[in-house]
Amino acid sequence: MYLKRFQLGLIHVAVAMTLVPINSALNRVMIFDLGISKTLVSVLAVLPYLISPIQVAIGSFSDRHPILGFRRTPYILTGLILCVVGLIVSPQVAYLIHDNFALGIAAGLLSFGAWGMGYNLSAVSYLSLASELSGEKERGKTIATMFFMMVIGLIATGISLSRMLTVYTPETLSTAFNIVGASALTLGLLGLIKLEPRFEHSASTSSSETYTIKQMTSAITSNPVAKLFFIYLLLLLAAILGQDVLLEPFGAQAFGMTVEQTSRIVSITGTFTLIAFIIAAALEKRVKKKSVAQSGNIGALVGFLLIILSGFMRSINVFYIGIMLLGFGTGISTIANLSLMFDLTVAGKVGLYIGAWGFSNGMSRLTGLLLAGVVADAATQITGQAMSGYIVVFAIEALMLFIAAIMLTRIDVQSFKNKVEEPSFVDKVALASD
Hints:
Blueprint: H1 2-17, H2 20-33, H3 38-50, H4 54-64, H5 73-99, H6 101-164, H7 170-192, H8 213-221, H9 224-242, H10 247-255, H11 259-263, H12 265-283, H13 289-313, H14 316-343, H15 350-383, H16 386-408, H17 425-432
Helix pairs in contact: 1-6, 1-7, 2-5, 2-6, 2-10, 3-6, 3-15, 4-6, 5-6, 5-7, 6-12, 6-17, 8-15, 9-15, 9-16, 12-14, 13-14, 13-16, 14-17, 15-16
């Protein structure tokens, strides 16, 4: 199982690393170098999450329709290829939007849509395969391994990308994206070799229970504490995840950072997120969960405040400290809040509340990314200063984190603690990648 676990990790890394160049280098180039609207960039960035409900249909379809005896492998491979194609053509799409807006938008919807479809197609398939190959007892270890490998892969991709873009030109950007795409495809293919056993029949062996959005919504709204926690998660995650589209362009705008330097930001935040996971493991069962969660929330909040301060001071050192704290706070907050989610899970309905976590995660990404783009453009238009757009968005995100921190003090999990079996650390990390 160790080899299969490693292969599943390679697939997870392969899909995740196709997003790094888009979220770091391309965002910066489109917004700062090409002057493309932040709102438009945000809209393109949320396409994968707009179509994410299709994962339910994909999972059900692949259960019933194996290809050449394989229920997951063909769908994973197709999704990976779509991710790689979307990645490779995205630089050309960016320049096309700049030169021919109407044609570029059409191409952008196809390119980012292809990546989004590829992500949704592959993600639900390899997570299903991971569950099937591991069984219930080993699932946590498998998904945790996949998640840790993914974070390490993101760090390595960010470092490699920055080294390939020491001198930025459209040609070097396209070459770097091609290399990352080829590397991702290679890792994915290595992961798929002899991974899935061949089935001789089309019957589904999946025993996981599924729930509708209506059922998840009802479970949340019927319980005041669960509803409060859900709103808390929305605010928290929208703030933390919404900065993805703006952090690199801000670095270029505020400090004149090169493409090489801004591409390294994802490696820095990823490194401190990984450190946070290790510390979260050490704190497991030693410190109160709400205290740990609050420390992560406050850490991310201080990170945002330092990023804002760095813009006023024009201090790149303060900026680096800010993104380190943001990455660290995000990691601590993720694990601790997953623990709280388990405490608010009613026995016998674990899947229902896990689904609610995933639903809130998707909604938060949509809300955060769109908020960032629209508000940044609006603030820039009103003030006539590009920097003000970034500062206003980061300030709003800091305020959202502050409100979330206050809400956390009102969440009482005591009455839930004896109703659900306490999960292991790896199970909590596993859920973070769902």
